Amino acid sequence: MFRSLRHALRMLRKNPGFTLVAVGSLAIGIGATSASFSIADVLMLSPLPVPEPSRVVSVTPANQGAFGANAAISYPDYRDFRDKNRTFEGLIASSFAPFGFSPDAKVLPKVIYGTYVSGNFFHALRVQPSLGRGFLDTEDQATGRDPVVVLGHDFWVSQFDASPSAIGSTMRLNGVECRIVGVGPEGFTGVDYMIRPALFVPMAMLPRLSGNNPLEKRNLRWFTVKGRLNPGVTVAQANADLGAIAARLEQLYPQTNRSQKIQAETELQFRVKQVPPQAALAIMQSVLALCVLLVACANVAGLLLSRARSRSREMAVRLAIGAGRGALVRQLVLENLVLAIAGGLAGILLAYSITDFFNAIPIPTDVPVSLKAAIDQRVLLFTMAAALLSTFLFGLAPAIQTTRVDLVPSLKAMDADSSGRKRLWGRNLIVAGQVALSLVLLVISAVMWQGFRDQLAQGTGFRTDHLYLTSFDTEPIHYSEEQTRKFYKDLLDKTRSAPGVQSAALASDVPLGVNQSNLGVVPEGYSLSAGQQAFNTLNYYVSDNYFATLGVRIVRGRGFLQTDQAGAPAVAVVNAQFAQHYWPKRDAIGKRFHLRDASGPMVEIVGIAETGKYVWVTEPPLDFIYLPYMQHNVSSLTLFAESSGPDAAPLAPVLREVVRKIDPSMPVVGARTMHDFFTQRAVKTTNILVEVSGSLGLMGLLLAMVGLYALVAYSVSRRSREIGIRMALGADRQGVLRMVLRQGLVLGSIGAGVGLILSFLASRALASALWILAGRMNYALLPSVALPLLLVTLLAAYVPARRASLIDPVRALRDE
What is the pTM for the complete model shown? Predict the structure, then answer.
């Protein structure tokens, strides 16, 4: 084996051009695929950082709807499911929340983000704190009695210098002194794969820390529930168990649990429902990368088939002196394996570069979102598996063909490729397929570029300039409801009268922000399907003057007024899509709907706003409702201040001074201009997606052109005697040039024709795919991409064609 390996290395060293092209092709294909797998992994596939993550499932309401669906369960329902089920080792509940943190009472608090968790959180997930302990059962039983906290590992390092003495010390959360009892293990993010909480707090402390007690209210669904299945229990069995418990709860609590169906679903199913944009992008990028890998492997297969001609005489000699065919096949497969390993290693380096580029993309949010792609052990295994698979799928057939030679003609002739044109059809097919796939990649990139450009040109339905954003949350500093209302009223009044401010408004979310809230609604007169409690709809809580400040056009009716306060009739503004959805061909003004579920409070529609973009710049039209924040208890709001000048950045010190005069201890987060936020979230992110797709397309095109060049060059070398005879009989150089170019053009045309059909189907799927592109497909892109591709194929064929036209007929005939 070592002798065979040394021989394989010598043969590859003797053919540096072939070796470099083959290794480079595999590196591009494997590197792009590995990087895409890493990105898809961090977006959707990464398992929860707990032992045996496949046994941990999400427990959510059935029929929860599309993006931003309410997957939360009330705490009383959670307790019933936890105590009465027979299929789970343990069920845990958690709720992500902001906290006002300060090391002691002398330091002003700053906003951090942590998680309220049930007392069995660490035990049920089988997570052992790296320092100290988790929570005791008694620390989650008496409301507000045990102010203890477990720190996240990153927070422990950044705030306590990774000192073991932190255990047993105290810190202040929302003004309450809490004792640190443990530190979570490094890399543990809780039950949200994207967010790194700074700390974990027992659920029983929620009423004391937040001033709100949802723990005894079945109609307040705040909590994410997950559970670890018993050994041998399937998701279907868990669903049957949960369904029986939900049916009993519906009988016991018909007002709050009517038609409530609960289901268990895998972590991947849960993520796809919660964040469909990420799922769609991960799938698209993975498919494109696999196309590049196919082109790369086909390129190597074509190179190996072409190389078989030059080695057929060698194989004939070795067979003639007694070598076994199996040994020769093993030798050739070993050479291919060396190529694959070298290509895999080079591909890993390329994958590192691509993931570093992805990780450099900033996420415009103050929530500790962690989307860092990494080349971990699973990615390395995937890379090497792809390399080995490419060896056997695309190297075995050329290896077998190389050893199938007719000994007598091969030993007698210098050109030992005696099989004639029969063998060329396979190589022609490979090259045509490469051209087709590269065309598909380029068309998809063009479709994405035009789609994103058109969506941005159409506008988002809100103003992106002259606005400065500043976010606040009164819960971490323990404001009461009355204090919260007074703070935000003073904030609006003083901001509107501040120098340089044209207008101001408040809203619970920023359009196109990472975190979007939703609310259950039941329009009056609509019946729900079995198991459905409400129609989940995206929503904002906003102040008066919101629509004018953000430039959201009111189509009919009115916006909110200062009189729309607590105690006044409940009102709402809906977008045109919501009105058209539930009251087609009728006027939605004056219509009503229930909030949260069919037993919730009734709200009257007083205005219809223009449909805009709320989550993603290419989203389809989504139902949306606006509610006046004064009629609802909202602690976290964002201030939108419109500047009177062209640049909103000078408002930053003005707004800081306004907040300081109202409450100097109020934490301020998310201070930025709307232009910067929109540019980062919508423009730069979409440009990066187009650049990545375009890069994959150019990789595929480069590999296809290398394959076409290699095939035409091989054909020229194979037909040198024929070309010499033609020229000896009077054929001119231009005729030979046209003859060889015709071969490249035919292959390119066939590949382009097949590619156009595939591109048409792929483009339609892409244009209609949810969250990737919205709008009509421009079919003029197909020929506009195919024609330059044909020109590039002619260019790839021109070099060997010109070489063929310069063949000396006398020398060619003498060599033969």
Answer: 0.74
